[in-house]
Amino acid sequence: MLRLPPFALHQPTTVAEAVATLKEFAPDVRVISGGTDLLPNMKLAQTKVSHLVSAKFLDELHGITRTDTHVRIGAATSLQTLAEDEDVRELLPALAYAASRIASPQIRQMGTLGGNISLDTRCRYINQSELWREALGGCLKSHGSECHVVPGGQGCVAALSADTVAPLIAYGAVAEMASVLGPRRAPVQELFQQDGTWHVRIAREELLVAIEIPIPAPQTRVAYRKWSVRQSIDFPLVSVAVRLDVADDVLTGGLVVVSALGPRPRVLTLERLAGSAIDESLAEALGQMVHERARPLPNLPYDAEYRRERMVVEVRRAVRVLAGLPERPLPVPR
Q1: What is the pTM of this model?
Q2: Does domain 8-56 correspond to CATH entry 3.30.43.10?
Q3: Which fold has domain 220-323?
Q4: pLDDT band at 230 (very low <50, low <70, confident <90, very high)
């Protein structure tokens, strides 16, 4: 049995009180809501922290509201609520679908949107017991001096494994943070950096309050695809979101967002394909683009080259869904 180390739990009732507490104890502090990732990491001594600030009683961090132009989702809104909300399912179906594919129903009831965005990076060399990591000599993220994924590498390349990030970027979502210095806003795409030890550009003394997502235009189409070994529980080994901006059945722009590569997602723009018909040839073109420009690392527990090929398959499948084409089955080995 793995035991939680001792820690102090703070339960503020206002955002002002929460950010003051974060400021007081930073950097030895984390925000906790569902705790489905943070608490296991504390048990494994991957995260060592003495203070937790609960989001349970912060009303501003809960709930989903809709205006004429935006959908605003509190950071402490549960993933199950996100997956089932009628406005999200109608206006942001790829986000609702991504939330519905996370882990299991029990974990989705506890886990939150903010927690998923802030999900710690994962790597085959860090997500092990402390004894296992010590036997290996540690790594850049675990009290060591070398990266075992990229020998000689100067930075941690543990993978971002959050399902909601890719569709949020595809929808152009903006994050709202609070601190003792006041509010701050930033596109979700800019929240991530190429450092797996602390990949989210949210300071220890900042509180993620909400995500604001512009309501897509009627001709904007977004799809999310995930591949993992099992259909439940597992983190994604391939995670892609495809956004197609369409006018008169012709592509005018869009994005492909590929995650589960390294600490931040890879975002590919589609301007050079503007004017293409929304058909099978576009699916092939986007698959080829991703194959050339996004390469998985051997940081997750599955063959990197297979993940690369599977990434192409999932991009093509996403385009076919958006084009209304029948899905092609994978070939059966003989």
Answers
A1: 0.96
A2: yes
A3: Enolase-like; domain 1 (3.30.390)
A4: confident
